[in-house]
């Protein structure tokens, strides 16, 4: 059974029409689908994601307009190779992340992935069902990571703020730099990505996100 069918994000979001987010993927309606976090937290692997993609189709949700399957925090242990490129656990993700994106696409769905604007994702700071792996954010690797996501075939990227908040980063500056990285990645691959700013509203993203992103959060997680 499809776990926790709901809107794609875990809090109130604001959706911007495509003309206000030139650096992000052009979209004409609010993106709807399924996200792994509320049901599984960090205990995810290819089997979990494949089964949810299957269920999105067989339940009729895909036909109703729910088209995104978003892999949230927990997909990555924070490891990089000597060149700083993301490496993944192939026991959890046979064929790597491009293979799971291909599987999602084979169902006529779109694939989403997760990172943080800071050095660490939220799984480093909160219980998730796996160890607190350090280095699961994109800080210091923006161009490298967003190009990798695009090359893997992802259509959507959620960029969280746990690391950014812990480090006291300026959200507008960080997310603008990320938007620029996404634009450069798209220029190289030809694959735009929907860009979701997951800053929770503390630094008033409604004042700056419309020019750089497709959607942005205005509050904390609804689970709380």
CATH homology superfamily name: Aldolase class I
- Overall structural class, as computed from helix and strand content, comes to alpha/beta
Structural Rg: 16 Å
Number of helices: 6
Distance between the termini: 25 Å
* Oligomeric grouping of the chains: single chain
Strand order of the largest sheet: 1-7-6-5-4-3-2
How is the main sheet built? 7 strands, mixed
CATH class: Alpha Beta
What portion of residues is helical? 25-40%
Mean pLDDT: 91
Pattern of helices and strands: EEHHEHEHEHHEE
Q: Compute the number of strand runs.
A: 7
How many domains in all? 1
Instruction: Return the CATH topology.
Output: TIM Barrel
Low-confidence stretches: 4-10
- The CATH architecture assignment turns out to be Alpha-Beta Barrel
Which range does the strand content fall in? 5-15%
Rough outline: globular
Task: Give a written overview of the molecule.
The chain has 224 residues and is α/β, with parallel strands linked by helices. It has a single domain (13-217), classed as Aldolase class I (TIM Barrel, Alpha-Beta Barrel), CATH 3.20.20. It has six helices and seven strands. It has helices at residues 37-40, 46-58, 97-106, 142-152, 162-167, 171-189, and strands at 13-15, 33-35, 68-70, 110-116, 156-160, 194-197, 215-217. Strands 1-7-6-5-4-3-2 form a seven-stranded mixed β-sheet. The protein is globular and about 40 Å long. Mean pLDDT is 91; it is low at 4-10.
Brief characterization of the structure:
The protein has six helices and seven strands. It has helices spanning 37-40, 46-58, 97-106, 142-152, 162-167, 171-189; strands spanning 13-15, 33-35, 68-70, 110-116, 156-160, 194-197, 215-217.
């Amino acid at each position: 059974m499809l776990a926790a069918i709901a809107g794609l994000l875990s809090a109130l979001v604001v959706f911007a029409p495509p003309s206000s987010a030139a650096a992000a993927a052009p979209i004409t309606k609010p993106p709807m689908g399924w996200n792994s976090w509320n049901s599984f937290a960090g205990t995810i692997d290819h089997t979990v994601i494949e089964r949810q993609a299957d269920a999105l189709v067989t339940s009729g949700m895909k036909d109703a307009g729910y088209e995104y399957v978003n892999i949230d925090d927990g997909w990555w242990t924070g490891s990089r190779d000597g060149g700083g490129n993301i490496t993944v656990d192939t026991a959890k993700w046979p064929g790597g992340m491009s293979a799971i994106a291909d599987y999602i696409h084979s169902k006529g769905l779109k694939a989403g992935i997760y990172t943080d604007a800071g050095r660490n994702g939220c799984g480093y700071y909160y219980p998730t069902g796996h160890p607190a792996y350090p280095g699961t954010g994109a800080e210091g690797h923006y161009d490298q990571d967003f190009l990798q996501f695009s090359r893997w075939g992802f259509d959507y990227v959620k960029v969280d703020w746990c690391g950014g908040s812990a480090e006291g980063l300026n959200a507008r500056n960080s997310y603008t730099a990320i938007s620029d990285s996404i634009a450069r990645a798209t220029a190289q691959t030809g694959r735009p990505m929907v860009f979701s700013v997951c800053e929770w509203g503390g630094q008033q993203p409604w004042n700056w996100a419309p020019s750089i992103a497709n959607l942005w959060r205005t509050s904390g997680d609804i689970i709380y």
